[in-house]
Write a structure and sequence with these properties.
Helix content: 40-55%
Oligomer: single chain
Strand content: under 5%
Number of helices: 2
Largest sheet: none
Radius of gyration: 14 Å
Shape: extended
């Protein structure tokens, strides 16, 4: 299980997302999964890049 620490930058980004009308529930779901120490779904996982950025993540 991870300890979730909401920094000032996170709070500002969260507030901006709400102001722009983005779906906050998706972010809340991912943060909750991380807090519980559960495995993230494949769509939320890191992926390799292609082209000029191949080899970076």
């Amino acid at each position: 299980m991870y300890q979730v620490k909401f920094t000032t930058a996170y709070k500002k980004a969260y507030k901006l997302m709400k102001k722009r009308g983005l779906d906050i529930s998706l972010l809340d779901e991912v943060v909750d999964l991380l807090h519980q120490g559960r495995q993230l779904e494949e769509r939320y996982c890191d992926h390799g890049l292609t082209g000029d950025l191949a080899g970076f993540r």
